[in-house]
Amino acid sequence: MTNWSSIKAIAFDLDGTLIDSVPDLAAATNATLQQMDLASVTTAQVRSWVGNGAKVLMQRALAHVQPEMTKSAEFDVLVEQTMPSFMQQYGLHLEKHSELYPNVLATLSHLKLAGYQMAVVTNKPYEFTIPLLNSFGLSHFFDIVLGGDSLEKMKPDPMPLNHLLSQWQLASSQLLMVGDSKNDILAAKSAKVAAIGLTYGYNYGEHISLSSPQAVCDDFAQIGDLLLN
């Protein structure tokens, strides 16, 4: 059984955990596809494709609208050629339709007041992570922000969480990972830290409990209930 009282620091995923950013990711994806005279995709499809970084999102979108291309040697080249356009479009759409999930602001405030060190560990490119946090008034909660390109490897690799352990000089029992995806839980398991899985985010249509985190929460406020009560 997890000893929640030993937790001193918390790493939060971003997309699907703090912010529902899929509407803007879908808008940027479709704007990119439109520039290429390709068919559009649905928001629901994009919701099932996010979590492994921007490049993988575009790989999945292009594979969906041009499945015949995936077996050709040109597919990887096409993805690389598409990325500058997607990055530009996402920058334009970054905060137009995204929303904070319920109880995020209040819960982060309570955790900050209780003295927890907090970080964001996301696979989103760093250049988009900071403006998104700023736009929702979240930046001041976090001592460290790691994007998908901040280190050599990203989740599900444990490198970002091991980086936090090193930076904060913590034992693995003192760090908690909070996320909505199996990538978050796999990273936590590899780093030997506890994990809370959220049921409302993006996890490829798979219930987060199947990844066996130490706790499963349906509402962000339940994180505070576990740690502060």
From TrEMBL:
<comment type="similarity">
    <text>Belongs to the HAD-like hydrolase superfamily. CbbY/CbbZ/Gph/YieH family.</text>
</comment>
<keyword id="KW-0460">Magnesium</keyword>
<dbReference type="InterPro" id="IPR036412">
    <property type="entry name" value="HAD-like_sf"/>
</dbReference>
<dbReference type="GO" id="GO:0008967">
    <property type="term" value="F:phosphoglycolate phosphatase activity"/>
</dbReference>
<feature type="binding site">
    <location>
        <position position="13"/>
    </location>
    <ligand>
        <name>Mg(2+)</name>
    </ligand>
</feature>
<dbReference type="InterPro" id="IPR023198">
    <property type="entry name" value="PGP-like_dom2"/>
</dbReference>
<dbReference type="InterPro" id="IPR006439">
    <property type="entry name" value="HAD-SF_hydro_IA"/>
</dbReference>
<feature type="binding site">
    <location>
        <position position="180"/>
    </location>
    <ligand>
        <name>Mg(2+)</name>
    </ligand>
</feature>
<comment type="pathway">
    <text>Organic acid metabolism; glycolate biosynthesis; glycolate from 2-phosphoglycolate: step 1/1.</text>
</comment>
<dbReference type="InterPro" id="IPR037512">
    <property type="entry name" value="PGPase_prok"/>
</dbReference>
<comment type="function">
    <text>Specifically catalyzes the dephosphorylation of 2-phosphoglycolate. Is involved in the dissimilation of the intracellular 2-phosphoglycolate formed during the DNA repair of 3'-phosphoglycolate ends, a major class of DNA lesions induced by oxidative stress.</text>
</comment>
<protein>
    <recommendedName>
        <fullName>Phosphoglycolate phosphatase</fullName>
        <ecNumber>3.1.3.18</ecNumber>
    </recommendedName>
</protein>
<keyword id="KW-0479">Metal-binding</keyword>
<feature type="binding site">
    <location>
        <position position="15"/>
    </location>
    <ligand>
        <name>Mg(2+)</name>
    </ligand>
</feature>
<dbReference type="InterPro" id="IPR041492">
    <property type="entry name" value="HAD_2"/>
</dbReference>
<dbReference type="Pfam" id="PF13419">
    <property type="entry name" value="HAD_2"/>
</dbReference>
<keyword id="KW-0119">Carbohydrate metabolism</keyword>
<keyword id="KW-0378">Hydrolase</keyword>
<dbReference type="InterPro" id="IPR050155">
    <property type="entry name" value="HAD-like_hydrolase_sf"/>
</dbReference>
<feature type="active site" description="Nucleophile">
    <location>
        <position position="13"/>
    </location>
</feature>
<dbReference type="InterPro" id="IPR023214">
    <property type="entry name" value="HAD_sf"/>
</dbReference>
